[in-house]
Amino acid sequence: MLMAHPAVLRDLIDQYEALAVVGAANADSAQVRQRMDDVAYTLCVSTGTRDIDAALIAARHQLPGARPLDDSVLNAG
């Protein structure tokens, strides 16, 4: 599987998180919702996952400094 460059993943994560904040403030904004969907889709494709939660986890694990054996996020809950 091709792997996205960490800088691309970091940018996508940052965009998604910023859009989530904006989306929460502007719940009726179709433009924000569409951009969030686009970024989520790109994250999923970039990480080989099917949902945004898994994509965010996978992307964070691919970033420099990630602890590859730390799966505490996956076991939380």
Description of the structure:
With 77 residues, this protein is mostly helical. The chain has a domain of 49 residues. The chain contains 4 helices and no strands. Helix 1 runs antiparallel to helix 2 and helix 2 crosses helix 3.
Structure in a nutshell:
The chain is an all-alpha fold. It contains four helices and no strands. It has helices at 6-25, 30-47, 52-61, 72-75.
Global mean pLDDT = 85
**Helix/strand/pairing class, anyone?**
mainly alpha
Describe the main β-sheet briefly.
none
The overall strand count is 0
Radius of gyration: 13 Å
Percent of residues in beta strands: under 5%
| Distinct helical segment count | 4
Tell me the distance between the termini. Answer: 30 Å
Instruction: Give the helix proportion (percent range).
Output: 55-70%
From N to C, what is the helix and strand string? HHHH
Q: Globular, elongated, flat, extended or rod-shaped: what is the shape?
A: elongated
- Low-pLDDT sequence parts: none
Please give the structural blueprint:
Layout: H1 6-25, H2 30-47, H3 52-61, H4 72-75
Helix pairs in contact: 1-2, 2-3
Task: Spell out the key features of this protein.
single chain, mainly alpha
